[in-house]
Amino acid sequence: MRASFRKRGKSRLTRADRLRRYLMEKLRKRWSPREIGKRLQEESPGDTALRIAPAASYRYIYVLPRGSRKTTLIQALRQARAYRRKRKPGHHEESRGTIAERLSIEERPRAVADRTMPGHWEGDLILGKQKRTVLGTVVDRTTRDTRLVPLNATDATSVRTAYAKALRSLPRAITKTRTYEQGKERSGHKPFTRDTGLAGYVAHPGSPGERGTNENTTGLSRQSVPNGTEFDQVSAREIKRVPRELHDRPRACSTGRNLLRSLITSWR
User: Fold this and answer.
1) Which residue from 219, 268, 267, 213 is spatially nearest to 242, judged by alpha carbons?
2) Cα–Cα distance between 61 and 77 in angstroms, integer?
3) Best-predicted range by mean pLDDT (22-26, 40-44, 175-179, 253-257)
């Protein structure tokens, strides 16, 4: 019966009112279909009626007829594309300069890759409109604790000072290493390590997967501060709101748990 229902172009969401309302509510919060499915499993573990696969959610959104409802739901997705499409592989060489006396990610302790202990961070920069303004991001690989770092400039001294200030406010027990991309704005890594105690490691050029946690978090942050944002026009209060929203989202790494619980545990 289910198969014949799908063949007629229908979806379970068209008749499951409670499930559809839940999906709409979380999409308006800019949660992804995967995150919504995780949270449903956590909140209603024994209710099989409240189950939805990410693919089914995407399919429901994209087969809706044209109109404001479909437009609103698509805009709530991270990529906000009018049509679904496959991701194309690519390779990009670093063109912003290299870092002298850097430590390669290959020299990073193997324990960092296990994600069993908090304190190992990844960092990146989010560029504003026409690259005139910039916002720094830093996220813990284990807890996904996220900090947005306001920057007045992208020279090495400005970047180092701003990141050091953000990370020095955290307990020393959860500030151990930092992994970041290539780029001359990171050339102040030696004084940064001296000021904060964090060992810094540089990812290979064109290898965003080596900083996958930060890449994913940057994509989520972009839903609140989209391309074209002038960061010098965004208030400090608004910048602080973005990590709070991220911490409330269910993430695959925490099997759907509210991320704030993980953060509280890691600070004890």
Assistant:
1) 219
2) 10
3) 175-179
Structural Rg of the chain based on CA atoms: 21
Burial class (CB in 10 A: 0-12, 13-18, 19+), 40: buried
199-202 vs 146-151, strand pairing mode? unpaired
Domains of the chain: 2-76 (no CATH), 105-267 (3.30.420.10)
Strands 177-180 and 146-151 turn out to be: unpaired
Q: Whose CA is closest to 230, among 126, 133, 149, 125?
A: 133
For the record, the structure tokens of 176 come out as 């151990």
Nearest partner of 58 among 41, 74, 42, judged by Cα: 74
Q: Does the CA dihedral 103-106-109-115 come out positive or negative? A: positive
Among 185, 201, 192, smallest CA distance to 120 is for 201
Structure tokens at 208: 């965003």
Distance CA 192, CA 134 (A): 19
Query: Which residues does residue 147 pair with via DSSP β-bridges, in sequence order?
Result: 138
Q: What is the pLDDT of residues 244-254, one digit of tens each?
A: 988 888 766 65
Q: Helices 54-62 and 68-76 sit at what angle, rounded to 10 degrees?
A: 140
CA angle 84, 88, 90 (to 5 degrees): 150
Q: How far is CA 157 from CA 59, 125, 154, 177, 191, in A?
A: 47, 15, 8, 19, 9
Q: Identify the band that residue 6 occupies on the pLDDT scale cut at 50, 70 and 90.
A: very low
Q: Is the dihedral of CA 242, 247, 250, 255 positive or negative?
A: positive
